[in-house]
Amino acid sequence: MKLYDYVLSPSCYKARLMAALTGVKLDIRPVDFHPGAEHRGPELMALNPAGSIPILEDGDLILTESSAMLVYLAAKAAPQWLGNDTALQAARVQQWLSFSHRLTGSLGAARLHEMLLRPGDIATLQWQGMAALRELEAGLVEQHIRGQRFLASDRPTIADVACFPYVALAPDGGVSLDPYPSIRLWSRAIRSLEGFIEMPGIHRLHELKPEPVLDAGEA
Amino acid sequence: MTRNAMIDEWYPVGLAGQLDTHGRQTALMGEPIGVRLGADGNAKVTGSNGRALPVCIRYGHVWSSLGDPQKALFAIPEADQPGRRLVDVGVVRVRCSPLRAVENFLDIAHFPFVHTDILGAEPHTEVPNYKVEIREDEDEVWATQVKFYQPQAAKSAEGGITTEYMYRVPAPTCSILYKTCPPRPGEWDVITLFVQPLAEDLCDVWPWMALFDDETSMADLIHFQQTIFLQDRSILENQIPRLLPLDPGMEIPTRADLTSVAYRRWLKRHGYIYGAQLVAQ
Fold it and tell me: Which domain holds residue A160?
């Protein structure tokens, strides 16, 4: 399976992360997105007329939408990541997969503006990003009340992988995550998953330091 | 009010390979400037009042100045050496002082913690002693005999090696790193950080490289360097105070910080204080 990849792209990272979490080996083909704009060149435009990356190629199959890649990787290697097929859970997974595009269009665009000088109305993008984060925070709080740690279930699903990258990178676009305690806990839960990989701007979870030892006299 | 001593320095303002007649609007130290390809095929840079600013094209970039540069842009002789791959890494904007961006580039001690498993790894965290000097003839800061254990020093490195480094600061917002070159022992890979000061707490960073590496694809070389720099970016944006402190009362440096100490001393000596904090607050 070949992934046309840009190391700083959160959407490409979704595919890389999903593959790592499900133990799939990807053949990475680096694309000079910045500064070379190779994704708009003839070779990649022929593969994906939308001119976007990632592109996932597996035999005759060409996928250009990251949510479809998550479904494909999970269905092939680890179907438990699709969630169960109850009406409620299937719908929740789809709800968050679609919601993840709002994160791309707001937090992702703010990040491209602030980091790689792409055009955009930064105040509006940041405001839309914060609105999306508030919705995600509320969703996670409701899940906690139901006794579930992840977006659609008590175990991680493709919905979490779809939403995590742009959320975790919100500070790159000048949007702080400080006001969202449930998002921060959820981020910790994802980063502690077996097989988790990082990307620039998303740091690995550092091991908790041992408890400080206090002498009786000091306390 | 004294004249800003940094006004007569050269700064990167764009990639030479991406110039077009439409041009790009950017800024230098608070002044809006325009960078474009002129009708005669040469790069033109104009200041906010339409005046023509000095221009030179070097090391893949367009360079300009708001003042009257007294010297030519610093030399990097290795840039003209045959057989090197010249890599335009591309611009990254960082909400930090331009001087802090350079200082971070000069630091080795953070490698195991920020560039984990690439430029450093625990428990190999010790920075052995190295030599630092302000070379009076060239008027540059140099750190030499810097050695550090690295799991993956370069795209061309197979496994961990002890890498040797030299750091050089030839201009207040530019630094050049010379680094062990895995496929070509005896030569140094050249990795630069050219910083365009937009404001005292905002800069565009233009990394550039001149490497001996015939194997790795250009996109892969760019990705490697962007990975490293983007790991630094979130750290840089969270440093406090935002301006680089030049008042020694603020911090207690360790031996590993000698390059930073010399850099700050050199900045202070020249009055290169755009982006610096002079009195601890």
Answer: 82-191
Q: Is the pTM of this model over 0.80?
A: yes
Say yes or no: B223 contacts chain A, CB-CB below 8 A: yes
Kindly determine whether residue B233 and residue A201, on different chains, have CB atoms separated by under 8 Å. yes
- Residue A34 lies inside a defined structural domain of this protein: yes
CA distance B74 to chain A (A): 25
- The CATH number covering residue A163 comes to 1.20.1050.10
Mutate to test the interface with A, among B234, B235, B239 (most CBs of A within 10 A): B234
User: Would you say residue A196 lies in a domain?
Assistant: no
Structure-derived torsion over alpha carbons of residues B183, B184, B188, B193, reported in degrees to the nearest 10 = -30
% of chain A beyond a pLDDT of 70: 95
CATH code where residue A9 lies: 3.40.30.10
What are chain B's domains? 1-73 (2.20.25.680), 78-277 (3.90.380.10)
Residue contact A204–B116, C-beta within 8 A = yes
| Residue pLDDT, tens place only, A107-141 | 999 999 999 999 999 999 999 999 999 999 999 99
What's the total number of domains in chain A? 2
Confidence at residue B102, expressed as pLDDT on a 0 to 100 scale:
98
Q: Which of A55, A80, A105 finishes a domain?
A: A80
Same domain, A187 and A88: yes
B93 with A201: Cβ contact below 8 A: no
Inside any domain, residue A53: yes
Q: Confidence class of residue A208 from pLDDT cuts 50, 70 and 90? A: low
The continuous run of DSSP H or E covering A30 comes out as strand A27-30
